[in-house]
Amino acid sequence: MSFRALFLEKSESGFHAGLRELADTDLATHAADGNVTVEIAWSTVNYKDGLALTNRSPVVRKWPMVPGIDGAGVVEASDDPRFVPGDAVVLNGWGVGETHWGCLAGKARLKGDWLIALPAGLDAHGAMAIGTAGYTAMLAALTLQQGGVRPGEGEVLVTGAAGGLGSVAVAILAGWGHRVVASTGRMDEADYLTALGAAEVIDRTTLSAPGKALQRERWAGVIDAVGSHTLANACAQTRSRGVVAACGLAQGMDFPSTVAPFILRGVTLAGIDSVMCPRALREAAWQRLASDLERSRLAAITRDIGLADVVDAAPEVLAGRVRGRLVVDVSR
Predict the structure, then answer these.
(1) What is the pLDDT of residues 242-279, one digit of tens each?
(2) C-alpha to C-alpha distance for 236 and 330, rounded to whole angstroms
(3) CATH number of the domain within which 154 lies
(4) Are residues 95 and 37 both part of a single domain?
(5) Do the Cβ atoms of 231 and 257 come closer than 8 Å?
(6) How many whole angstroms separate alpha carbon 93 and alpha carbon 61?
(7) What span, in angstroms and rounded, lies between the C-alpha atoms of 121 and 212?
(8) Spacing of C-alpha 324 from chain mean position
(9) CATH number where 78 lies
(10) What pTM does this model have?
């Protein structure tokens, strides 16, 4: 049986990304360590996928590669007793699309340890509208909640708010009753962010330049998808005993800060690792996404594209010109 896939190749003649017809035998050869074959219905284009599809960063570490770090669909065949044909499943991370063939394809051969059952109340399209970006946003939101950040006890900042992760974070936190302040470099998206639940929208330039080690206390909690000076300033403005969840690096990987917020105000800086996150925490995050994320807000975040559109969309994702989430129909 054949299926379409995005296919990345790299050789002495250069890099190429394009559509390719593949066969089940290709999966058996290049994804031999997988034990569950999934018929993928929907996938996504995340920032990491954009890097892989444009070869702008050494994300791919095994060639050739089928990209796609997210996928949702139905089990076609399984050697794992936890899954049987017909089971609806979702996958995020685990190096898929980097070292193991991914989900921007009609089929994927994956490890059962990487899969979780699709939660009740979500279909494959909804799961990919959430995707790694939204799942990471929920992990970050749960980190704030577990750290004692409560609605009505102070403002919560979300940086990179118009992107996929930020959009879902705004919707989650607003749905929980927080007063959310959304920081973005696209102030023309203020109405969009307000519709998701943001009480205030601020320009990212208020946070992106070098700042003092300690600044006026404002934030009870922060979800930061940007890094660099933005994360440093967010920490410097976080209130005593506040929690900052770091989950992105859109501005940079550097962290030009001091220990002052942590030892003088007791601020907690928590790192969010969505790729290798333990199964139990993954399942908990997906259950909360299924129950807590308003479907109308999720629909506002989402735009559908076909598999044939992904290569052209990748540079737009990297340039920060995509609002919310791109959901990929792998059948077109």
Answers:
(1) 999 999 998 999 999 999 999 999 999 999 999 889 99
(2) 44
(3) 3.40.50.720
(4) yes
(5) yes
(6) 14
(7) 46
(8) 10
(9) 3.90.180.10
(10) 0.91
